[in-house]
Every structure is written in structure tokens, then in C-alpha cells.
């Protein structure tokens, strides 16, 4: 569901992807890290693109993140991003760093770029050396797969335990000019011996200064990728990276630009959509869970409470069982560490208010259970203390989650 | 396994319980809150006992906790503790408070005590009114059930989804006099529509000032009950309460007393044993998981890392699947927020070192899997940064956990 600006100003491009914006091409192939599935992908911009990234908060940052940081620190313009799945190149010591450099150099050489204009990213097994020969051989083949129609191949090549490709592109108007924003992501699903990794890539042909883009990305990530929880664990390889190549030829966007609001909303729409798909595709998940918290006294408080609810194993299992156990929502709120007044709280599950001013209403258990049986379950909490809100997304906790994560290496 | 002081100075009393210390009696009956199981229990001391308690950190503290706090604030001496299972009397507004008062008054009247010498505790359903008539009728019958042999009945009456009674008593020597410490607890298991509650009661006939007892309890709780994790959620009703009636007639214990060390170790032994049983009896658990972290630069750091490892869903499912996935242990360490050096870390699973100075060793997957198939799984991490250690306990995450917590009310 879109809000008003989104409805009026944002046009979704059918089958859109990260190669939809002007001047972007992408490709994805199988290079032999995984048995059969695509495992190597690339995004290329015709011209150097203003770029920005945010990284995992896990203190062990994998080698590719360090190399990408180095590229962006040199100058915040990228022309290529290469990603492999099947091996995270994490906890691989000095060797991992050399392998990530070699991967970056191979792309630079193949596409005739400066290594400092190339970013690298990896997802998969932790603690095992990257099969660098297969990757460099694969990189040599990437030019053949490159096309402005192949964004979905890239989206496929970065997946690990995800069950579907997450790809979107939208069109907005800036100064009457067409601007496209595309995105793709992979989820925080984890299967042995893979590490969790959340990767997201957002491309646009908008003209925007790297500093403005970095600030935008941080802000939007806080409302989207940082508001999803699959199982509370944060990987060593998480990264969100964005590239803006300016080929739409608008005057540079910033918060004083008359079309800033629509660009901001469009960028946020893409990020939130990717984040929701990641949550929906959490390992073993059968439902997307959306939690809205209103009436908090600060944005931090609203965010913390929304995430506590969506992240609670007890709430997640109750939702799996379609069980209207609002006591667990209360408990999660109480575990946030923030002072709230129990006698002011309203809780609504789907369309049914189960708690009003801290008192249980006379609701039908059957109707609550029905609301909890939908593909998307909405929980709405009003604390009635202030004016701040937040939304968080997650999924239910199922037998399948346990099966996937308990099973032996195969 | 006991350490040296424990082995030499602590004697475990067969079938010991909270009624083993001199002057303590206990009882447990069925009063009709639950269908068939015992649901009302009491501990009585012949004389007022120095008492201390620690409470849940959840900001919503249930009514009985507020009433118990009031009793202890009046004077830190209790003579009775009454506990019901089947209903938590939590999130019951003003009414819940009146019901808890009525429960306390009924015990005071029946046993001819001051209400301020009575503590109350409840565990079970949240958000529903206490069936106070059944409870007061049950309290009137409690004197018949009271005996110094009935500690296990009390232990049974406080259970909810626990699968076994947790009861222990030990004997130590203070000034050559026999001192007994008894304990019982119920686990943090949760089943719909019950709330999680961890309750523990420790009794002793030692003579100790309430202030010293409070300090001891806080210190020991930090090393025992606060170091267990079943699913990361904290209930509104959690409480650890201790009573020391002084009938052993030792001179008051404090840290300058020559036998302080043995008393401290004995008290800690009882608390840790109860804590480990709670972890082992976590919902759906098949294994007790012990995580020791060494070489931290502060006790806080050691504790935080041990709890992150034992609380990670990914580590817990890997242990369920007997899968030696040390990458998940690394990830949990990295999520603690503390700076550690990856190149110094050793990780040992059971007897097998899988990571040495940050590098994977040449271990046998089969042997690691064997170590992970034991009833108690031990994980040992050395950070090689400092001299601080901590131990935490938890359990595996299983299909059964999901089944229990997803199932409808019956």
C-alpha cells in the first residue's frame, strides 16, 4: 500500500531491476562456487556513479567489506560492483583480504576500470577460502552476460537460501525529467554452513552528490533494512550499497531541491519494499509481520519497541500458530527498557482491537486467529504518550526455521 | 562437577528441598486454578526470617511483585511465601493489586502472621483476573499440607510447563555448626496463554543480616539466574526470593566471617544448580548448553559474550542439529558489541578445539558432532585479551519449542 505521494508520484516499472536506470547494465552467471545455481553477478554503470554504502554492525567485518570501504574512501565514485554467493570470504584472515583484492583487480582489468572504482561483496560459507580461480575465470566471462535487461540475473546470482528474486524499479519525475530507481536484495536467511547476509543494491540515474547520497542512504536504511528482524543475528557481511550515475541530467538533488521530497519518497519506497521482501522470505517463514508503534515520545523509543515485538520468539511462534496472545506483545514492550504506562496502551491485531487503555476488550478469539492467518499480519500498538511512530517487519518462527538451521551440511 | 571448595565442604542432602533447613515447613495442594495439577504452595518459617529478593527487569511488574516489595520494604523479615500457578495476576490493573493483597491477607490470617511478613507470587496466564475465591479457599486448607518433608510438593505446585521438579538442599559447616541451604525453582518455559516466569526460592537456617543477604542474593543471581537464556524474553513475574531464619545459631555471616567463603560457595552452588535445571528444562529443549568465556577484559564483557552465544537462535539450532558450525559462534561474539581480536580467538566444542588463534584447526566433523550430541554441550571460548571469565547456560532450539509455543489454547 502506498501513501499519497507514493500513489501520485511513483510509477512502478513492470519487471524493473537495478539495470532499469539509464546507463546501468547487469549480469549474473554460474562460475562454480555453488553446484548449479548462479553465483557471480555484476552491476556496471556506463560512467562513474556517485556511490554510498552502509555496513554491518558486527565487529567482524568480512574482507570484501574492507576492500569496498577502501574503494569508496579513495573517491566516492564506483563504476562496478561484483558479488559472489556461496562463500562469504569472512574470517579468512590475511588471505581473505588478498583474495578480495584479486577479485576487485580482475573486474577492473576485464572492464578496463580503476580498481578504486570497483566494489566487491561476498555471501555464503564463513571461514573457508574463496575459490578465487573460479571467480577470476567467471569474471572473464561476465562481459558476455552483461545487458540492461539482465538485472534479474544479478538478483538471482546473489541469493543464498532466499526463495525468490527480489527486484524492483520505479520511475519518478525530477524537473520534468524521468528518473529511475532500481533495487535488488538478498535476505538474512541462513543455512548451514552459510552465514547470514543481508545485501541490498540500489541504482539510480539521478544526479546527486555522493555526500547527499550517503546521508540519504543512512537515513533510509534506518527506516527500512534496519527495521527488519529475522532472527536477531547480524552477519559479518551485511551491506547496502547505492550508485547514482547522474545520466538523468537533473540538477543535483539535495534537500533544498524542489523535487527532493519525491526522490526521497521514491528511494525510501524501493528500500522498504526490498526490506519487506527480505522479512517475508525469512527462513521457514510463512507470513510477513508488520508492527507499527505509535504514540512514543521519541523515534528511538518507537523503533526499539517495534523491533522488540517483531523480534520476540514468543510473539513469532504465536503468530505462526495464529494465536492472539497479546500478553506476549505486552511482555515484549516491557522488555524494551522504555517507560510506558500500561493503562494507556492499545493493541490492534489486524482489524481487531484486543487491548484498549490497557484493558482486554471483548473480542472474538476466532476473528483474531483469522487475522493472524493472513499472509501479512499487522500489529498496531498505540502507547498514547507522544507523537513518534515507527514500523518494523519480520516473520513468524516455524518448524521449517528449525529444520533449515539444524540440518547437517550436505 | 564441583570445584575444590564445593567438593570438600558441600554435602548434598538426598531428596533435599526448601523445607530441609531447620524451622522451615512447606506444602503444595490443588486449589482449582489448574485442571488437575497442584497450583498452590507455601513456605513457612517457624520464626521471622531475614529475607531478600530480586525482581524482573521487565517494566511491567505484576501485582504480586508489587505486594511482595511492599512487605519487604516494611521490614526485611518474612515468615511465609505463598505462590500460585495457573494465573500470573499480571496486567490486571487495580483489581490485580487488590487480589494480591487479599491473597496475602488470607495467608496472614490462616497462619496468624502480620501481612507484612508474607510474600506473594503468581505464575501463569496474563491479563486474566486471579480466581481469588479458589485461592483463599485453598489457603484455608494449606495448614493440613504443611510439613518439613513437603518441600517437593511446593516445588511441584509452582511449575507451569516445566517437565520436572527442581529441588535441592546442601549442608555446610559454619563455626562447626550444621547449616542447610535449600532451593527450588520453576523454569522460563512458556506455553500459551501462559507468560514466561522464572521463580526461585532459596531457604537457609543460617543467621545472616538482611542487608548482607540482599547483597549476596544480587551478586549470586548475576552469576546464576541472570546467566540463563531460554528464548531471550523476560517475564513480568520473575522473582528470586531468599529467607534465612537463623535457627542454625551461628554468629551473623558477612564477608569478614571466617566461614563466609564456604557459605558463599554453598549459596552459589544451589543457585547455579537451579539455574542449570531451568536451562535444561527450557521448552522443547533436548540439551543443556554451557558456554564459558575466558580472556575477556572485564566481567561485563565476558558475561555479554557468553550470553550472546548461548542466546543466538542460530547457535541453538546448530546445537539441536549437532552441527559444528563455529561460524555462528564467531558471529554471536561479533554481535556482542565488544572489540575482540579475531586472530586471538580459540573455540572449543566439547573436547575439540575447532578454532585456534582465529584459524580453523584440522578437526573431525564427526567428533564435533558427537560432542554436540551429548546431554550437556560445552562450548569454551578464549579471547586471550584479559583475565575475566563468565559462564552462561541455555538450551537448544527445537521443533518442540515451536510446537509448544505455536499451539492454540486448549
Characterize the structure shown.
Chains A, B: The active site is at residue 197. Chains A, B: It holds the Pfam family ArgJ. In chain A, helix 8 (299-311) packs across helix 10 (326-334). Chain A has two domains: 4-280, L-amino peptidase D-ALA esterase/amidase (4-Layer Sandwich), CATH 3.60.70; 288-406, ArgJ beta chain, C-terminal domain (Ubiquitin-like (UB roll)). Helices cover 34% and strands 27% of the residues of chain A. Chain A has twelve helices and 15 strands. In chain A, strands 1, 2, 3, 4, 5, 6, 7, 8 and 9 form a nine-stranded mixed β-sheet that branches. Chain A is globular. The first copy, chain A, is α+β, with helices and mostly antiparallel strands and 410 residues long. At the A-B interface, helix 9, helix 10, strand 13 and helix 12 of A face helix 9, helix 10, strand 14 and helix 12 of B.
Keywords:
15 strands; 12 helices; globular; L-amino peptidase D-ALA esterase/amidase; homodimer; Ubiquitin-like (UB roll); 6-stranded mixed sheet; 9-stranded mixed sheet; 27% strand; alpha+beta; 2 domains; 410 residues
Which SSEs are present, and which pair or pack?
Two copies of one chain form a homodimer.
Chain A: H1 4-9, E1 11-12, E2 24-29, E3 40-55, H2 63-74, E4 77-87, H3 93-111, E5 118-125, H4 132-145, H5 151-157, E6 166-174, E7 177-186, E8 199-204, H6 210-223, E9 239-244, H7 260-280, E10 288-296, H8 299-311, H9 313-320, H10 326-334, E11 346-349, E12 352-356, E13 359-360, H11 365-371, E14 376-382, E15 388-395, H12 399-406
Parallel strand pairs in A: 4-5, 8-9, 10-14
Antiparallel strand pairs in A: 1-6, 2-3, 3-4, 3-9, 6-7, 7-8, 10-15, 11-12, 11-14, 12-13
